[in-house]
Amino acid sequence: MAETILFTLIVVAGTGGELCVSRAMKEVGGAISFRPGDIARIILRALCVPWMWVGVAMMALAFFSLLGALSRLNVSFVVPVTALSYIAGALGGLTFLGERVSPQRWLGISFVAVGVLFVFLGNR
Which spans in 47-102 are helix H? Predict the structure, then answer.
């Protein structure tokens, strides 16, 4: 039961955090150049966007959940199962960010899902 909670937090909070950070960075915009001053301005603007802080908090929760999972289970099981975040990321990008997900991406994500299923069944 605890492992299920940890994996859910890893996938949901990690992916949710990435989606929030992506949304924040879309508001901020990209760097014009990679000069230190331009990068510093982008970082300072990003720190003023609430989505960035929500994303960082969610990613921290996912990180500490990952630590908990790694302390209890084999890394050869934990890392492949966390690949479920690919599915969550595609669904989140589609619904939360309005991104288009091509059929080729869905096919690739389906292969990952089947691979996770094999890993999960092999651990039983």
Answer: 50-72, 75-81, 85-95
Single-letter residue type at 3: E
Q: What is the extent of the structural domain holding 32?
A: 2-122
Q: What percent of the chain has pLDDT over 70?
A: 99
- The per-residue b/e assignment along 94-117, b for 16 or more CB within 10 angstroms, e otherwise, is eeeeeeeeeeeeeeebeebeeebe
**How many Cβ atoms from other residues are within 10 Å of residue 28's Cβ?**
19
pLDDT in tens, 50-60: 999 999 999 99
Cα(30)–Cα(115) distance, rounded to whole angstroms? 35
Task: Kindly report the pTM of this predicted structure.
Answer: 0.87
Instruction: Measure CA 73 to chain center.
Output: 21
Can you read off the two tokens belonging to residue 27? 């508001």
Number of domains in the chain: 1
Which residue is it, tokens 């949710």? 16
